[in-house]
Amino acid sequence: MPLRRLLLSLLTVLLPVSSWAGVVWRGDFETGNIGQYTSTQRVSADRLQVVQAAGATPDSRYVLKATVRQGDNPINASGNRNELVYMGKEREGSEYYYRWQVKFAPDYPSANTWQVFTQWHHEGCCGSPPVEFFVKGEEIRLTLTNTTTPWKTKLVRGEWQDFIFHVKWSSSASVGFVELWHNGKLVLSKLKHATMYPNDGIYLKLGLYRSDTVQPVGVVYHDGFTQATAWEDVKPADPTPVPVPPAEPTPAEPDAGTPPAPDAGEPEADAGAPSTEPSPIVDSTSPSPAVDTLPAHTPSVEAIGQHVGCTSAGGPLGALALLGLGGLLRRSRRR
Fold first, then answer.
1. 301 touches 229 (CB < 8 A)
2. Which neighbouring-strand residues pair with 49?
3. pTM above 0.85, yes or no
4. Nearest Cα to 188, choosing from 153, 160, 155?
5. pLDDT tens digits for 215-251?
6. Which H or E run includes 229?
7. Which of 65, 122, 230, 321 could join 14 via S-S bond, C-beta 3.0 to 4.6 A?
8. Angle between helix 2-14 and helix 316-334 axes, rounded to 10 deg
9. CA 229, CA 166: separation in Å to the nearest integer?
10. CATH architecture observed for domain 17-233
11. What's the pLDDT score for residue 209?
């Protein structure tokens, strides 16, 4: 056993250190059910359905279909709702990136009142949540502590909307902040603001929650929810470059005064004579069509206890160390 411990210690020194990914939790429904979430607030199973459908990304196979009808009130509180609940790790001073996609049905109702599709609710019993994304009329809005609406945009139906939300959770306006990307573009630069209520926790609610005055049926789809501590774990993948085929050379047309080409039986022209026509030029440096890219930065994040997944890199030294370790372990077992 002492030899085994020595070899393992040597291995940790010789091999490169693993780098831990910053994904804390996924609620992307790729399990085919709602088991990734803590609980539900729904009147029946058909109001929160995980359906097999084309999601927001090529790898997505399942999405959540949230439906609300007037009168849906599973917890006997204000408004109508059907929502999933996830009790996360948000505490005073914690900092996270969240990414998810939302699609509003083509017949999603327009009403001059609130229709919340994502919210971070306080653990206290009453009042508006400190962070909520909702629809009002023909706008999508972000509102903080029911006092500030720093961002809004036009409601688009029938298309996936991509959100990346960076937030530091704090009840202090000098500590807490939010930052938002929508459909790949930074739409809200870092804004200092209280993101929690004093001496209170916070948790995620996803689905649809709206005023009980809205009569038409509302349907919204959710996909790909990810909570992470690093920008690299939520940023969209770089677009695959599209190869540009080389241009076909255009045959040069003879001058009007140039005699016709000789027949097959006549002597060929001198192969060494230079052509009088310029060669076609192919511009191989033409840029690809412009693509909006997100800022490639990785802000520092306070240490968070729970990380999932790791990656590591190896090199020649690591490979030699493994070979040597294998031989030593075989000799040790023979003894």
1. yes
2. 65
3. no
4. 153
5. 999 999 999 999 999 999 999 877 666 666 776 666 5
6. none
7. 321
8. 170
9. 9
10. Sandwich (2.60)
11. 98
Residues in the chain: 335
In the block, residue with structure tokens 């909570």: 227
Residue 7 is which amino acid?
L
Provide DSSP, 253-290.
PPPTTSPPPPPTTSPPPPTTSPPSSPPP---TTPPPPP
The angle at the Cα of 233, spanning 220 to 20, to the nearest 5 degrees, equals: 140
pLDDT in tens, 154-212: 999 999 999 999 999 999 999 999 999 999 999 999 999 999 999 999 999 999 999 99
| CA–CA gap between residue 148 and residue 133 (Å, rounded) | 12
pLDDT tens for each residue of 9-64: 444 334 333 334 599 999 999 999 999 999 999 999 999 999 999 899 999 999 99
Closest CA to 141 of 153, 131, 124: 153
Chain centre distance of CA 275: 56
Contact yes or no for 82/41 (Cβ under 8 A): yes
Task: Concatenate the DSSP letters of all residues of 99-157 into one string.
Answer: EEEEEE-TTPPP-SSEEEEEEEEESSSSS--SEEEEEETTEEEEEETTTEEEEEEE--B
